[in-house]
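re: ur question from earlier - yeah i can do the single chain one, its not a big deal. heres the input i used so u can compare w yours
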Amino acid sequence: MFQIKQVQKTQTTSTPTPSQNVISNTVQQTSNNILLYTDPHFASTSSVLRKRGEKFSARLEGLIKTISWINTLAQEYNADIYCLGDLFDRSNLTAEEITAVKQCDFSKHTVILGNHEIMGREDVFTTVFAAQPKSVIKQPCKQGDIGFLPYCPHTHMWDLQAVQGCKVLLSHVDITGIQNGTYFSKVGYEVAQLTECADLVINGHLHTRNWVIPNKLLNLGACVGMNFSSTHEESKPAVMLLNMNTMEYKFFENPYSPLFFKHAFTKQEDVVKFLDSLQGSLNVISLKVPDTIIKDIRNLIDTTYADKIYYSRIEPDYSFSNFEAATHEQELPKLEIMDGMESLKKFVLEKYDKDNTNLKVMLEEIEVACK
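and the output i got, formated as tokens:
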């Protein structure tokens, strides 16, 4: 059974130990601007993305660049940085993942605890102490105009009293009754429960960005693409800049994120239009096309569009094959229906003499076997 850990405040010293900064709910807002991102899921691989980079896996190198880009944006706009959960993909990181995380500067990041960070016995923030964030939010709290609601399982949901009356609520929770990408949530908080707590609710956890209620409840969406369950036809991985005074916001698309697209086409010219529309070189595509043109499509991807495609998966659709088309234009020859038992009996009678003492037994056994 999952248990919510009680947060203990630590006493500050002139030289804090690695774990002291990562178990406090104390958050100090220093700017009117806040920069929000969620669900980077630090991991060496994800889904079909398993390429190696120069030093780490290609995914880890993209994540390192993403965090550096976020820090640069925060400096440019003088913004406090908040991660809305699932900074890590697991609580037990590999040696390569730990080494890659330590290349990043999280010293000005406040991180809300996500569901992936509690999957295991280890405290991932203590394990990766060299990359410790400014603070980690492990239970509901409110600091100034901002409320924080970390992950909880639907069997042990937080009391929302601690986050009532805030201007902005940052969360990483399940929300029941909403569709997000291919995922439909059947558990979690009711929409009204969250929107009654704050003027604006911004939620992590779900990987496709969309407004559940315009300018009231936003699923921010993962800042880095992971797999085909969340495709990017309508919205691309991004971070959000929000001014706490004016409540004006802006999205910045992540230039270091792979983009996932999944389509089915019936005509080659439509495939070409789609490939022409792709931007950048980090496109991950899954296409289903008629088997009659699949070779041409693969050749286009490997040559003309090679610079645009990071990974491709092309599947044949046999419903458009010449054989299938022929069935609608001409009648196929009828197959002769054979009686297997009678054919076997005939073979035995031809093979053995009618006076053979075993013939009767064989015929009886054949008849029983063919029932």
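The radius of gyration is 30 Å. not sure if urs matches, ping me
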